[in-house]
Amino acid sequence: MAYGSLSLLLSRAAKPNLTHPLLKQFADFEIAEQETVADVLKAFETTATPKGTVQAPTDAELMQNLDEAGKASVKKMRAGNSGAQYDRDYIRYEIEGHRKLLDIQDVYLKSPDNLDETNIAKLARGMIKEHLTLLAALDKAA
Prior knowledge:
Ferritin; mainly alpha
């Protein structure tokens, strides 16, 4: 939850200040994906009636999942100004976070113990790899 929460908060914070159009699009996709993943993971913790809509977590809820380094990263993105360096900082944070997320999925998939969680990890792993490829291309273009 920590790295997904961080990616969501960074994307929400960065989106208004990003200058590269494709990077803005990436942030939109990342926000939608991470809100959905957070909603699905939260549903595992409850016995609530299934809903066909996503209940996006608030920034305050997400901040509770972060360590001090994550909180500092969010603070930096919120305080930043638009420009090429800002775009590169966002890309760097997202690449670091996605690499950590990929490592988590890989470790989890080596010792699967829950069918639903294993299937989510499989799906997440594929999307994370795609995002790393997109981020590498955006890094070259920014």
